[in-house]
Amino acid sequence: xxxxxxxxxxxxxxxTNCIFYFTLLLISNLINFYxxxxxxxxxxxxxxxxxEKEIRSVIExxxxxxxxxxxILDKKVYAKGFTxxxxxxxxxxxxSLPTPIVIKNIKHNDITVIKKxxxxxxxxxxxxxxxDYLKDSKFVSLSLTFFYYMVLFFSFVVFCxxxxxxxxxxxQTRINEIKVLSILGATNFYSQKFIVLILMLELFVAFIxxxxxxNSTVLILKKYLLNRVEYFNLFLSEIDIFDTSNIYxxxxxxxxxxxxxxxxxxxLNKKILAL
Amino acid sequence: MxxxxxxSISYQQNHYILENINLNIKKGSFNVFIGETGIGKTTxxxxxxxxxxxxxxxxxxxxxxxSKLSHPYLSIFRRGIGLILEEFPLLQDYTIYENLSLPLxxxxxxxxxxxxxxNYFLKLFNMTSxxxxxxxxxxxxxxxxxxxxxxxxxNPFLLVADEPFSNIDTEESIKIIQxxxxxxxxxxxxxxxxxxxxxxxxxxxxxxxxxxxxxIKNEN
Lengths: 275, 220
Description:
The structure holds two protein chains of two kinds. Chain A has six helices and seven strands. By secondary structure, chain A is an alpha+beta fold.
């Protein structure tokens, strides 16, 4: 007896996952967005220096590949964008530094920076500033960063639990199907291996659809709605479904659906045997 | 003819729900088991339909000894029994059409005949418009009627129904009883349960009252 593979169960998982995951992703985005607007741009270089040459050299360096939208306001240099620590090319701009942090650039030159702070995926470099500001911004940045990653982590946990919950529902539906069909007098079912395969396929398709949906929505948001979600691109590049070179993403999805699929199939087997 | 001989069943040791029950049910009769809640009416129906195996005793349906039938013969035998039980729900992910087509598919009917039969019964129960709906879109009473259709759609020789009219109003129940009695005249045997008698003046219905675990009496 055939067991129906219904697409609306996959769509159920897909939509619920998307709603949960995307809502939490949006909350974390808003937290970051709010914090940036209220506390600092994504990359801010503060300098007491009024030497125009010095400032220009900073702009030239920062307006390269890794940064865009660099401007000066009240003798401060603002640059938005994101980068990695090693890509930052800043020469020894400040001679006296209260708490110098030495980092290496790609050319292996020593770069001395007064402070480096992380806000989400944003790297804030303070070359020179007064101590109070640094204390405040560091505290706020670190708290928000912590909260931001907590929300991201929580959203992923919800995503996993939600998938598991829905998969359980699929298992329950399968059990009901088998139960009803056997009461009706069906004698031949698809083999259990085949049912498990269908179950895993359903999960896999649902995950792929969810991730694709989230990814494409964030890309659209980035383009049309929010100007400042570049850092999500960084986050999503890790799970970019359109990036065929990202084998880890595919592997993790396969392993994830395999773990859930096999856990549930064991449950399914037990319940079928108990019928 | 259904014969129940010395039937006993217990779920816990030495705690019998039914003990040494003997019954004779005529072919083509309409039988109702009445009695208090928890007295064993549903259990008796489940045993007669082969869903539960008794601890002791025999159930003969025609010349088949149900206790001696093993899988898959029991499954094949059950195709001839229409069931309305709480543990046998409509599948929520299937439309009414798909739910009703299941027993017919199992009997290897062709798609054309399946559709024909479903349309006939839905029309008979005045539910044609519900064909593409899902069970959760129907009321309890409508769901109950679909249960009844699913049980009788495959021309069973025996209909086993646990309180089939519990969610249906009296007027509708009378109509359904008339449909079932028309099937009864064609040879269908009916075994149902109820808290009270449907219509005491209807002498075609045989009432068996279960008094306790080992006492069933024909009320007629």
